[in-house]
Task: structure prediction
Amino acid sequence: MQYLSTRDKTLRLSAAEAITMGLSRDGGLFTPVSFPNLGTLDLKTLCGMDYQRRAAYLMGKYLEQFRPEDLADFAARAYGPEQFDHPGVAPLRQVDGSTWCLELWHGPTSAFKDLALQMLPLLLSASLRKTGEEKTACILVATSGDTGKAAMEGFRDVPQTKILVFYPENGVSQIQKLQMVTQEGENVGVCAVRGNFDDAQNGVKRIFSDPAMREALAERGYFLSSANSINWGRILPQVVYYISAYCDLINGGQVKLGQMVNFCVPTGNFGNILACYYARKMGLPVGKLICASNRNDVLTDFIRTGVYDRNRPFHTTMSPSMDILISSNLERLLFDLSEWDDVLVRGCMDQLARSGRYEVGGELKARLQSLFYGGFCGEEETLETIRSLYRERGYLVDPHTAVAAKVLADYRRETGDAAPAVFASTASPYKFCDSVLTAIGVSPLPDSLERLDQLQAAAGVAAPARLASLRGKPVRFGQVSEREDMEGVVSAFLS
Ligand SMILES: *Cc1c(COP(=O)(O)O)cnc(C)c1O
Result:
């Protein structure tokens, strides 16, 4: 399988090259030239496999350059019992007669990012060997809270890599911050940025596209790579759990092979829901793709009107991983829906960079609207949803997941579409104790680790062991940078 850029469809790279580079030099995102079709036979075969084998089987369709036994080994390591505290890795939990929650937070950092970021370092290391790259990969990450931790956990002490994470100073939860500033590993670095997530992400993009920086780093034996969801090596492992969830529904007798299932995904950078779109493209019987946003509802408007406009107030919400006004992976969707119109994509992205706005119409917009439904959920409704799922179903969810549950309910009410549906649960409620406690009527204590105990007591379920073990860990990283100084931070990190 070869890969091209969303801004230059004549480009052809191998999977190993695409994963090593992360982002195309022209600013575009790497995308496979075709999407292998899953026949009924494939789905039946997958139903008989465990999660690890499903992952190796599906990734193999895109990574012919990799030996099947290597992929099987990677999947066994990335999704083994030491990493994931549930044997199903990404299990479904039934919420009512036609609704399931896909729990994606059983990994080491209690967020769905682990599904991709336990795998990416293995793919990247193998790609470095395949491409004969001798320089050290410096992974730059802008995080809205979960990616940074998950990426460092995946890359820590991986040979021939270093990883530096930027997070918005006041844009992450206390537990998320504590997870990052106490990160272990010889090759990791963490720095807060005075600004919001978009500022941090723009800073990283600026560094990536700066030729002088690239040259200076090359002289020191480094090249830059990305662990953000712009890297194909992150999207691909995410395609797996949608297909796996469908297989689990079949195995449980809850849907028949071929029956349509709707998926609702709490969305920020559009990586997770894009993976679901790709699963659909491969032939998975996905009905509607329901894109759930918080108060930062730029995607809701885009899906409803065709106008993408980031010129609006930025809200800091209780679902910070979705506090994003520039959803990078939307570029891959535009490329696909426009049938590879790289000129159109470049035009939209130029307009976005210049004026913060672009518009799509015609066929493209019609396709967008037939595939996707967009909705958003405010802060008060998020709390109400956490409360009602807890009271009525005995199920504790985090604020991001609550946003998805609410938008799914809105979709059903608005359209009358009662098809079986799965909503993605992207973080453990224990990562957001403050909001979750407030929602269920308990006043949170000031200390973030004491809140873990509070929530444990209220829920009667043990907090994930790795969150509980943050207690007493030494803080290793306290640096704060201005937005304009991120280059200097990178330079110092690699000196
Ligand atoms: C990253 C993240 C999201 C958003 O996912 P995207 O792939 O960026 O759309 C949602 N919820 C949680 C908890 C996250 O960490």
